[in-house]
Predict the structure.
Amino acid sequence: MIELVPLCSPIPASAALNCRVPGSKSYTIRALLIAALTPGVVQIENPLESDDTLAMKHCLNVLGIPVAQVDNAWFVEGSVHQVEPNRQYELNANLSAASLRFLTALSTILPGEQVLFGEHGLNQRPVKDLVDSLRRVGAYIIDHDREGYPPLRVLSDHLTPEDNVIRVSGKTSSQYASALMMIAPELVSRSGLDIVIELIDEPISRPYLEMTRSIMAAFGVTVEAPNDRQYRIRQGQHYQPITYAVETDASSMAYPLAIAALSQSTLTIENVKPDSVQADMELIEILKQMGNMMTFADGTLTIQGKGVQPLDYNMENCPDQAQTVAVLAAFAKGASRLSGLQSLRVKETDRLAAVTSELRKMGITVDETSDALTVYGGNPQAAQIATYGDHRMAMAFAVAGSVLPGVKIEHPEVSAKTYPGFWDDLKKLGIGVVPY
């Protein structure tokens, strides 16, 4: 457990304090998967080195696709075409849902037998919609314990979509469609035909699909979107070996931005692309609506924090920041309503229930429904915060500790899932982090 010692005073504009947060988890994991489908050597610069990305890296190594590190770059040497048949590969994704879901799709076109699993928390997260989609096009997948949940055993090595269309639901996770999109160029190469990924319902977190399209384009494959339910990968396209630079993680960037807003400080974040398609870039708009000023200039983002005002916001496209915004709302005088949060029920924990419970410990009234929170903010009190094995619970409530004396965070080490240097970076901002 740790106790946070708040900022003694706001970070002033004259201090010109800069913060450089790590590379994007979502882009790093996607880059690793695409690199495994790319003949030749792929160099990944500025990768995020965290529990989730290391899980993906480890799984590629298990498959015989080495990933070497030189300074701040990873080199993916070899490809899936070198995976040996007549072998069983145990792919432990630890707690990384993205890694497991992407590798599930990849495994259906690999030789040999793949067993996919993770730690207990990951094995409670659903993959049924993805598995059903893959089975419909010829995948042979066995559920070990519960239908639609890891562990999974994959024994197929090819897919045969009868009409060149693979249909999938996106109502639980956009990662299912992203997984299919990323392996589609290999299916195109084998069949010589276009492949269409078709959503059978409206997906949540649609910006993550645009992220997948953008990284595929960087590797030389254009994904057309003739409408909002179809993604077409045309024949004749192949992933090209490139040097790929991972941009700053918008999800990790959210926490120092939220701290600056709450403490009414001025802070500059380095290496930020104003045209980034990362879903959590939407937090910039949320913080503006809460009364803060944002400025992009020369690859940086500067926030002039003005405090926080209540708001009513649909967060369906950026649900990973719901906990952060809920914590900010606890300090805003009035009622804030955050909607579009149905996907939070099946994350690392039930995030709606978890954030409601911890805000109530702080004396904040919260109304919780199946897909929304109403937070009645104003005067939160310090409390000991349970993190439920969830990295975002730890980091979101650390935002409260940046201005509120006495906030204690249980199991702070969970932040290593996506942001290993988080607590050190808080110290650089002037926030004390004391083991308790």
User: Anything to note?
Assistant: The mean pLDDT is 93. Residues 175-191 form the longest helix (17 residues). The radius of gyration is 22 Å.
